[in-house]
Design goal:
The complex is a heterodimer of chains A (about 260) and B (about 400).
Chain A lengths: L1 H18 L8 H21 L9 H28 L1 H6 L6 H27 L11 H25 L2 H15 L14 H7 L5 H13 L5 H32 L1
Chain B lengths: L5 E12 L7 H8 L7 E13 L4 E5 L6 H8 L7 E6 L3 E4 L12 H12 L3 H14 L15 H13 L5 E5 L7 H16 L3 E5 L3 H7 L2 E6 L2 E7 H18 L7 E3 L4 E9 L8 E3 L4 E9 L4 E12 L5 E6 L8 E4 L1 E8 L7 E11 L2 E15 L21
Parallel strand pairs in B: 3-7, 3-8, 5-6, 6-7, 12-19
Antiparallel strand pairs in B: 1-2, 1-4, 8-9, 10-19, 11-13, 13-17, 14-15, 14-16, 14-18, 18-19
Helix pairs in contact in B: 3-4, 4-5
Classes of the chains: A mainly alpha (about 260), B alpha/beta (about 400).
Chain lengths: ~260, ~400
């Protein structure tokens, strides 16, 4: 077990070291990307669609959703390549290969945590002081990361067999983004009630709701959010692990 | 189980075969809807059974595709068998491919730690091992340099030093020793012989009968995924080479020289030379092989877009190297009456032996002139310095001064 943890730690370190080599702004990009999209969405939804005007400090609300979403989307996109990029390694020595998708998720999670730290400072500066409910945030981060790992395992395997998976994922993520309460709130009457029920079935909806309530509103998250997040996480992680274990022997030969 | 023991019981391993590796979802859907399935299976190992005791050095011999590398990958735990049981005990070091875990952007030392983690060693253990690795690889001054700045030799040296630093009970070697310069190769052999003296189990795959004889006492001949013969190295190797020689003769027709084409453009003179321009038919590994070619066209016409092809074949007709100017991204030839071309290769990767060289002139779907298997050449091995002790050296036959 300690060996597996050590392996994860080394792979995450490698990921972080390698990613920003030769990049001037380095880690800042993880902050800058959501900042740029925040500017775009703020303009679109307050100047053009006049929809975000209903929410105070709409740009901060946006960031609270965009950071976990970007983590989720970036992890899934990265997972299409984890096995393919390491095929020589996989075919030359044995190690627990499931560490590859997991370590990619952890590396992205570390970025998210740093960005969340910066966001929290901004939120406090604009009067969104967190309540006691902020203690729940780490739990949500952990669950979201576990669920993301489950998805990553499935996608990394799928993309070995069908390179279409990577293409398909891009389209899916676009639709998924708008189907998740990332840039809009639930329960504010902004979304038709029937749509809201549908959106709550979305695996990431619970996590987004918890991020918004603990960080932006400073309130205790609704129960449905926890039920959704915990159950989806259990299902996705279990299925992901099962698929990975089941397919691992043939994937190694397939690469 | 005693450390260093290997037990292969009735092991089968199947690969899926593809005509084209990139299968799309469309194709799968077609299969689902009742079209014929494209699945084909290839049985790389077919009920292979053998046992290797601790301290034995065993060679796996056999022709290409006999299952040698597959066996090593099963032993290393990279593949899992389709059926049957693969059992090993003790720590395994695999020299299947060197330096694969290295990330080009990381420094030598960082890569050592990362690879250590992949092999299951913690940082503390790797800190202890690091100086020894750097010293053996002769890279003490370069451990803080990103490995992308390493030469391929340095890269391989670090890979070998790292893979063998972990004091394995079982060592798996797959032809990797043909790397580095002669001095480093000798050093590698020395370390491997050291493992053998220390009573470690060694499984060795090589096409070089000399290397096999030197290192191993026992050999297993794999043929179409089965252990066809198992015994003392000289017996097995002899039987294998005999059988192979027969095979070469029976299939010799495939490698017979052949010449055809419409000769609108043709080879009028072909000279093989060594790196210094001296005509030669035998070359040392690492030497360059040049082919000077005089090309003419029929009735002195001008012909454009000519593809000049070049290939080297084993005596059994198997192609080991092939290329042409189109594939190489070089301009197509235009010959106005007559012209000269030359091809130069450095066949480092080839094993010593006899080969046949083919050249061709083709155009857009026309065959101008082919000379298949036309030029026999022989490649001589580099003089490796085997770590053998010569006890009695006497020189005779030299005329007295």
């Amino acid at each position: 077990m300690t060996g597996d943890l050590l392996l994860l730690k080394s792979l995450v370190e490698k990921d972080l070291k390698v990613r920003y080599k030769r990049s001037l702004l380095g880690f800042l990009w993880f902050l800058l990307k959501p900042l740029f999209s925040m500017v775009v969405y703020t303009v679109v939804f307050t100047r053009i669609l006049r929809f975000g005007g209903a929410i105070e400090h709409f740009s901060l609300f946006l960031l609270t959703g965009l950071l976990p979403w970007n983590f989720f989307a970036a992890s899934l996109s990265a997972s299409t390549k984890t096995l393919l990029d390491n095929q020589k390694l996989i075919r030359s020595i044995y190690f627990p290969r499931v560490a590859l998708p997991i370590s990619a998720v952890i590396a992205n999670a570390i970025h998210m945590l740093m960005a969340l730290g910066v966001l929290e400072v901004l939120l406090i500066a604009f009067g969104h002081t967190p309540g006691l409910s902020i203690v729940l945030l780490p739990v949500a981060v952990l669950l979201l990361a576990a669920m993301t790992s489950g998805f990553s395992m499935m996608i990394s395997i799928g993309n070995v067999y069908y390179r279409d998976v990577a293409q398909f994922l891009e389209v899916i993520l676009l639709a998924w983004f708008y189907a998740s309460p990332v840039i809009y709130p639930l329960g504010e009457g902004l979304i038709p009630v029937r749509m809201e029920a549908f959106i709550k079935f979305n695996p990431v909806a619970g996590a987004m709701e918890i991020f918004h309530s603990t960080m932006y509103y400073g309130t205790w998250p609704d129960l449905w959010a926890w039920v959704s997040l915990v159950s989806w996480t259990l299902v996705i992680l279990t299925v992901g692990l099962l698929i990975f274990k089941r397919m691992e022997p043939s994937v190694v030969k397939e690469l | 189980m005693q450390k260093g023991l290997i037990q292969f019981t009735d092991v089968c391993l199947d690969y899926r075969l593809y005509r084209d590796r990139s299968v799309s979802i469309m194709e799968t859907l077609m299969n689902v809807f009742g079209r014929r399935t494209t699945r084909d299976w290839f049985r790389a190992l077919d009920h292979a059974t053998f046992q290797i005791s601790p301290g034995e050095s065993v060679a796996l011999v056999g022709s290409n595709g006999a299952g040698k590398s597959t066996t090593l990958k099963l032993l290393a735990g990279i593949y899992s068998s389709t059926s049957g049981k693969v059992e090993t005990s003790g720590r395994i070091a695999s020299l299947l491919d060197l330096g694969v875990g290295f990330h080009p952007e990381l420094t030598g030392a960082e890569n050592v730690f990362l690879n250590g983690a992949l092999l299951g060693f913690d940082q503390k253990k790797m800190i202890d091992l690091l100086p020894g690795i750097a010293e053996f690889a002769m890279l003490e001054r370069f451990m803080d340099t990103p490995v992308k700045y390493y030469s391929s030799g340095m890269f391989m040296r670090l890979g070998f030093a790292l893979a063998t630093s972990v004091n394995p009970d079982i060592l798996l070697i797959d032809e990797v020793l043909a790397v580095g310069d002669a001095a480093f190769q000798a050093k590698c052999y020395e370390r491997i012989f050291g493992f053998r003296e220390a009573g470690k189990t060694i499984v060795f795959v090589s096409h070089d009968p000399e290397a096999v004889r030197r290192l191993c006492t026992r050999a297993i001949w794999l043929d179409s995924g089965r252990a066809r013969m198992d015994g003392p190295v000289d017996d097995v190797l002899g039987a294998y080479l005999d059988a192979n020689a027969g095979r070469l003769q029976t299939s010799a027709s495939s490698a017979a020289p052949r010449e055809w084409g419409n000769r609108e453009v043709f080879f009028s003179k072909v000279t093989l030379t060594d790196g210094n321009g001296v005509p030669a038919r035998s070359f040392r590994q690492g030497d360059s092989l040049s082919t000077k070619i005089l090309i003419e066209t029929r009735e002195g016409k001008k012909v454009d877009n000519i593809i000049l092809g070049f290939s080297i074949h084993r005596p059994d007709g198997e192609t080991v190297l092939a290329s042409n100017n189109l594939e190489n991204g070089e301009p197509l030839l235009s010959i106005d009456g007559s012209g000269e071309a030359s091809i130069s290769v450095t066949p480092e990767i080839l094993e010593p032996g006899n080969y046949l060289l083919s050249i061709s002139l083709t155009g857009n779907s026309t065959d101008y002139h082919w000379q298949d298997n036309f030029y026999p050449i022989s490649l001589l091995g580099d003089k490796k310095s085997p770590p053998l002790k010569i006890s009695n050296l006497s020189v005779s036959g030299l005329p007295p001064k």
